[in-house]
Design goal:
This protein is of the alpha/beta class and about 230 residues long. It has helices spanning about 10-15, 20-30, 35-45, 55-65, 130-140, 165-190; strands at about 45-50, 85-90, 95-105, 145-150, 155-160, 200-210, 215, 230. Helix 4 crosses helix 6 and helix 5 (about 130-140) packs antiparallel against helix 6.
């Protein structure tokens, strides 16, 4: 018998795996208790149907419109003026949220103004999109793959990420931004904005917090083919 050899426990043997799994298991070992490898397998097979987020966001848009008061609008511009822009902003990497900001400034830049970012906290919608940041962390930090069902039904698989955080960020921004765009489209189709004090021409916008996504595209904003332009008859 080799007295210098140390018998390895089953937990130790579990660490002879790929790096992401080893890191995950080490966290469990440090915390004590049984190792739940099923939890690891769940994370390694994360699937998100993004279509599930559209209806809750639409409901929050409806609520936001219903509670809108021109005299107390918490957005850029004079409170009792007509609305020039409706901006839906979102973020998914450092935090996960969706906001809806009403801008009443007649001179607001229809291409990109950015003033809405000063009013995020007071206009954040009460909808749970924490899964968006969970997905980002799985791909970028835990080096795992996540499968998304986009709003058009296409299955998109992202990850693992290797030194291309910007590419992954832009891809995720497109997926989550399309959710917001779809929610705005549903709200418009249901005439949810018709009760608001709208200007003769209003612009709908979707912008990611760090400009990784924009709808409509920047090069069409303010032009004749601006998809977000609403003209009151």
């Amino acid at each position: 018998m080799n007295l210098g050899a140390v018998a390895r426990s089953p937990r130790s043997k579990l660490l002879d795996t790929d790096p992401p799994k080893a890191s995950f298991l080490r966290l469990l070992l440090i915390g004590g208790g049984p190792v739940n490898t099923n939890r690891y397998l769940l994370l390694r097979n994360m699937k998100i149907d993004l279509r599930q987020f559209v209806a809750p966001i639409v409901r929050q848009i409806e609520r936001r419109v219903r509670l809108y008061g021109a005299a107390t609008n918490l957005g850029p511009g004079v409170s009792d003026a007509t609305i020039q822009q409706i901006v839906m902003g979102f973020q998914f990497d450092q935090a996960a949220w969706v906001s809806l900001v009403f801008d009443t400034r007649p001179d607001a830049d229809p291409v990109y103004d950015g003033e809405w970012q000063s009013y995020i906290e007071r206009n954040t919608l009460d909808c749970d999109v924490d899964t968006w940041m969970d997905a980002y962390k799985e791909i970028v930090e835990n080096q795992t793959q996540v499968a998304f069902t986009a709003v058009d039904g296409e299955v998109v698989k992202l990850g693992p990420c290797e030194n291309d955080d910007d590419v992954v960020g832009q891809s995720l921004a497109k997926l989550f931004g399309d959710v917001c765009r779809e929610a705005l489209a549903h709200a418009q189709a249901q005439f949810l904005f018709s009760s608001l004090p709208l200007a003769a021409t209003v612009y709908l916008r979707v912008d990611e917090h760090e400009c990784q996504y924009a709808w409509p595209d920047y090069d069409t904003r303010g032009a004749e083919d601006d998809e977000g332009r609403l003209v009151r008859c």
